[in-house]
Design a protein that fits this description.
56% helix; 0% strand
């Protein structure tokens, strides 16, 4: 979502649509339409609402990626995961390992955040933590 409305958006938009389309023109077209809706929502947000709009769009797209990964056939899953990793690697700015940039967040309560590749985090809440 950080690329929406930037010069990087065009290439990322096309690659993401191809990823979701997986060779089907109808699925690719539907993904392009959703991506355009995302860019329009981000572009229309004023400075006050921009952070919230980006968060909503990030959540929507996270759900779409998760749904696709859950819905693909087990035989196809490794290829889809490899394609997603290639998409991320191709569109991650150089010098930014794993795309782990975190910015523009607002936390209004207890928050846990993890950024990185291949790391582990165990969280325990409550009196026995």
């Amino acid at each position: 979502m950080q690329a929406a409305g930037t010069d990087a958006w065009t290439g990322l938009r096309a690659a993401t649509a191809r990823f979701f389309g997986r060779g089907d023109d109808r699925r690719t077209s539907a993904a392009l339409e959703r991506l355009d809706d995302t860019a329009a929502a981000v572009g229309a947000a004023d400075d006050v609402d921009a952070g919230q709009v980006r968060l909503r769009q990030e959540a929507l797209w996270q759900g779409r990626f998760e749904s696709l990964l859950e819905d693909v056939d087990v035989r196809e899953r490794d290829a889809v995961i490899a394609a997603l990793r290639a998409l991320v690697a191709q569109h991650t700015p150089s010098g930014q390992a794993g795309g782990g940039e975190v910015s523009g967040n607002t936390f209004t309560g207890p928050t846990i955040m993890q950024v990185g590749n291949g790391n582990r985090q165990d969280n325990r809440f409550g009196n026995g933590a």
